[in-house]
């Protein structure tokens, strides 16, 4: 059911999705779908929570381990891009829901396992103080890392058109970003 719902929500969005279409795609009747998920919003939240629960633990592990900021950036970039290769619908899905319902993320934020950047912020501040990193706000650095990793997935059709790449060539380009993005960010913040 969740896989069918994910596919319909991904292609039609929350507002365009219909419970009957989801039931048909899942090979069940609509009454059964309503038995498990009383309404479309509850089903959507289950799909979103399921998808987010796959990514959040990875982010938390990277953000809260004891490695250097450079290593965190490399691990985050590589893991995020590998994860998105397996779940390419997720970034657009999240952005779409945040635009449709900004309060939804506040509910998510209260869930156990929501990524916490406090240790990352402390580490950035310490590495700046130790002269390892150029002066930079930890929040700005985190936003830069997120933006450079998320945007190529959210804007895939646009970027494919700009770069004149088909799916296979675009996927190769994305694979190279595992090192390109990390190198770009690290070279911009590291004191050499």
In this structure, how is the largest beta sheet organized? none
Distance between the termini: 52 Å
The ordered string of helix (H) and strand (E) elements is HHHHHHHHHHH
Give the fraction of residues assigned to helices. over 70%
Oligomeric state: single chain
**Roughly what fraction of the amino acids lie in strands?**
under 5%
Structural class: mainly alpha
Shape: globular
Tell me the radius of gyration: 19 Å
Low-confidence stretches: none
Tally of extended strands? 0
What does the average pLDDT come to?
89
- Helical run tally: 11
Describe this structure in words.
By secondary structure, the protein is an all-alpha fold. The protein has 11 helices and no strands. It has helices at 2-16, 19-26, 30-36, 40-64, 69-86, 90-100, 104-109, 118-129, 138-154, 156-163, 167-189. The longest helix is centred in the N-terminal third of the chain and has 25 residues, at 40-64. It is globular.
How do the strands and helices of this protein lay out in sequence?
Layout: H1 2-16, H2 19-26, H3 30-36, H4 40-64, H5 69-86, H6 90-100, H7 104-109, H8 118-129, H9 138-154, H10 156-163, H11 167-189
Question: What descriptors fit this protein?
Answer:
about 190 residues, mainly alpha, 11 helices, about 80% helix, globular
Short synopsis of the structure:
This protein is mainly α and 192 residues long.
């Amino acid at each position: 059911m969740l896989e069918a719902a994910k596919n319909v929500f991904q292609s039609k969005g929350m507002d365009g999705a219909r419970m009957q279409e989801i039931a048909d795609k899942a090979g069940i009747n609509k009454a059964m779908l309503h038995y498990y998920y009383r309404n479309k919003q509850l089903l959507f939240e289950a799909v979103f929570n399921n998808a987010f629960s796959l990514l959040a633990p990875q982010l938390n592990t990277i953000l809260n381990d004891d490695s250097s900021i450079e290593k965190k950036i490399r691990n985050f970039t590589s893991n995020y891009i590998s994860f998105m290769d397996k779940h390419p619908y997720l970034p657009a899905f999240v952005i779409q829901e945040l635009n449709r319902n900004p309060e939804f993320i506040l509910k998510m934020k209260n869930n156990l396992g929501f990524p916490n950047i406090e240790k990352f912020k402390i580490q950035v501040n310490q590495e700046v103080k130790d002269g390892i990193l150029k002066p930079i706000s930890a929040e700005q650095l985190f936003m830069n890392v997120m933006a450079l990793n998320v945007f190529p997935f959210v804007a895939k059709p646009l970027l494919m058109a700009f770069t004149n790449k088909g799916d296979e060539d675009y996927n190769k380009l994305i694979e190279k970003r595992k090192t390109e993005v990390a190198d770009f960010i690290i070279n911009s913040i590291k004191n050499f």
